[in-house]
Design brief:
The protein contains 29 helices and four strands. By secondary structure, it is mostly helical. It folds into four domains: about 1-100, no CATH class; about 145-300, Tetratricopeptide repeat domain (Serine Threonine Protein Phosphatase 5, Tetratricopeptide repeat, Alpha Horseshoe); about 310-485, no CATH class; about 500-565 and about 575-614, no CATH class.
Length: about 625
């Protein structure tokens, strides 16, 4: 019965609104209510007449600057407000509405109807009820009207009475943040987060901190992500989302065993609370059993159109047989790979669905978006695994997977490691083919080298040791380091505590580069400083620090600051480079390696002391 009333009410209110908009006069509405209204409420004329005045009183009118023209409710013996001529008690006062009449209904419907300058003026009036903004914004978002949804939800939070904001505002807040992200309004996103963190209700502050933590993880800023997580834990200590976020954070930091232990802690704690449903408890149990696999499964299940083909790809990669050998020759003292006719045929079949070319002028990148056609090429690849006998196919797949999943450590075991093992068989075959370099610009060598770079980056967060081993194998073939892998190997060695080896690789790299040469080597400089500090070579570390400061004067300040202003730096996943000596270069180094400096006892204090003495 309630569902019938809701349908009738929405139909009646929509018709009433159309009648009101004709001239915004009450008699026009009542004429419509008597003549056409009954058809919207099951033929009940008395209900139609009783409902119309209620809706009139809550309808915003453009002629009144979007205020409502409230009718005074008549007394029992006064003339009824429907202009029937009868007393209120004998007319509308004798009618009982079949269900609840939301006081914001006509505002909500108006917000759905208005466009352009009218909508803009209505929102600017500040008269729209929060609940009407909330519902109209959510409806617009669900129907794909992203611009309208953003406009309406912005107004909800711009004019918010934070103490009276309904708790249903939480999904609206998250949707608005997503809209800002999707549509490139990054400053608005940051401003909204700051506003909520400063003034918002506690339930929104926790959500904001959770979102801030995830944003920092996306940007590889592990130190800021950890800080946001701690604040979120203080704001919402019993939020189940924190279990999920802490598992992600620990996996990003490379602490797989701790991720398991903390997931078990959250399972015990939240189970005792008795407030979670069966699905939430099962998710926490799965997380406690295997955080990485659970997060990977959750990610793939969230892929509406690609979930099934991606799971199929995981299955395919887990069952891959070793690849056939490649055609490699030694020519002019160098090792050269040339694709065979068989491999070219496989790539042509794959590319028919893939359709996007690899960018020949970039280390990693495409001349288009490969995921637009993923619904075509993924199923074909899963049904034709022999296509992965072609290095060109492996190259395209590795680049595509890294562009989408390379920042997610839990995706490395199932997506990147099987491809890396396949590539390594080929690279070892090339190494055994003879002496000489394997240069980027010879034959089809770039296919293998580019695939290697993509897989090194894809595994960097979730399979650090395998990532480093593959990088070292590539460096043994490409000793000119055309891929820029030495810095990545250095960072991994420092994370593993292999400081002597880290120092050696930094010295080799810096010895071959003039100090005044404008190359982005900040990671090498600062990696050398950290290795020397850990080895107790403080005088040499101070000298190395001075060289690093000459290269980039921003690095130490940003590294030591707790909450510095971010620089606008493209994600490291894209392979984008930054200008040497810039604040952007220093910020990129901070996001990647500050956690190592902070976790090294006394390192940041030593940095500050050395700089203050100079």
């Amino acid at each position: 019965m309630l569902a019938v009333w809701v349908d009738q009410l929405l139909g009646f209110a929509s018709g009433a609104l159309a009648a009101i908009r004709q001239d915004e006069r009450y008699p026009t509405l009542m004429r419509w209510a008597r003549e056409q209204g009954p058809g919207r409420v099951g033929g009940d004329k008395a209900l139609a007449q009783a409902l119309a005045p209620e809706l009139w009183s809550q309808t915003p009118l453009e002629r009144l600057g979007f205020a409502c023209e409230m009718l005074a409710r008549p007394g029992r013996n006064e003339p009824c407000w429907c202009d029937s001529g009868r007393k209120m008690k004998q007319c509308c006062g004798a009618v009982s509405l079949p269900g609840h009449l939301p006081p914001h209904l006509m505002w909500m419907l108006s917000l759905r109807e208005w466009k352009g300058n009218t909508l803009k003026a209505a929102l600017a009036s500040g008269r729209a009820p929060a609940q009407a903004l909330l519902e109209a914004g959510l409806i617009a978002a669900e129907s794909g009207q992203r611009g309208r949804a953003q406009q309406i939800l912005e107004s909800l939070f711009d004019n918010a009475d934070w103490d009276r904001l309904p708790e249903q505002a939480e999904p609206a807040f998250e949707i608005l943040l997503d809209l800002f992200q999707e549509r490139g309004f990054y400053r608005k996103r940051e401003a909204l987060l700051d506003e909520v963190l400063d003034r918002g209700p506690m339930f929104l502050r926790g959500v904001a901190l959770e979102r801030l933590c995830l944003m920092h993880l996306d940007n590889d800023d592990l130190d800021s992500a950890r800080s946001a997580f701690v604040r979120a834990q203080q704001a919402l200590p019993d939020s189940p989302t924190l279990a999920y976020i802490e598992a992600m954070l620990l996996l990003h930091e490379g602490h797989e065993e701790e991720a398991v232990e903390r997931s078990r802690f959250w399972l015990r704690r939240l189970t005792r609370s008795g407030e979670l449903d069966a699905d939430q408890l099962q998710f926490l149990a799965d997380l406690a059993d295997n955080p990485g696999a659970t997060l990977a499964d959750q990610l793939l299940s969230a892929e509406e159109d690609l979930g099934e083909p991606l799971v199929g790809l995981q299955t395919l990669l887990a069952e891959l047989t070793p690849p056939p050998p490649l055609h490699v020759e030694q020519k002019d003292g160098e090792l050269v790979y040339h694709s065979s006719a068989r491999e070219d045929t496989f790539y042509a079949a794959f590319h028919e669905g893939f359709q996007v070319e690899v960018d020949p002028d970039a280390a990693m990148g495409f001349l288009g978006d490969p995921w637009v056609n993923a619904g075509q090429w993924l199923p074909v690849l899963c049904s034709s695994p022999e296509q992965l006998d072609s290095p060109a196919v492996l190259q395209s797949l590795a680049l595509a997977l890294t562009s989408r999943f390379g920042s997610l450590p839990w995706m490395a075991p199932s997506l990147f490691e099987p491809l890396a093992e396949r590539l390594e068989r080929w690279l070892i075959q090339i190494r055994q083919a003879g002496e000489g370099p394997f240069s980027w610009d010879r034959g089809d060598n770039a296919q293998l080298l580019r695939a290697g770079l993509a897989l090194v980056v894809g595994m960097e967060r979730g399979s650090r040791q395998h990532s480093r081993e593959l990088a070292e194998l590539l460096l043994s073939l490409d000793n000119g380091d055309s891929l820029g892998l030495r810095e990545l190997v250095l960072d991994q060695l420092l994370r593993e505590g292999r400081n002597d080896e880290a120092l050696e690789i930094s010295r080799e790299a810096l010895a071959s580069t003039a100090e005044d040469e404008p190359v982005a080597l900040l990671g090498m400089y600062m990696g050398q400083v950290l290795a020397l500090y850990r080895l107790g070579e403080l005088d040499e570390a101070a000298s190395a620090l001075e060289r690093a400061r000459r290269h980039n004067g921003h690095a130490v300040m940003l590294l030591c600051a707790d909450n510095p202003r971010p620089a606008n730096v493209a994600s490291n996943i894209t392979g984008a480079e930054v200008e040497p000596g810039t604040r952007a270069e220093a910020w990129q180094y901070r996001t990647l390696m500050r956690d190592q400096w902070r976790s090294t006892p006394g390192a940041l204090d030593w940095l500050n002391s050395v700089v203050s003495r100079s």
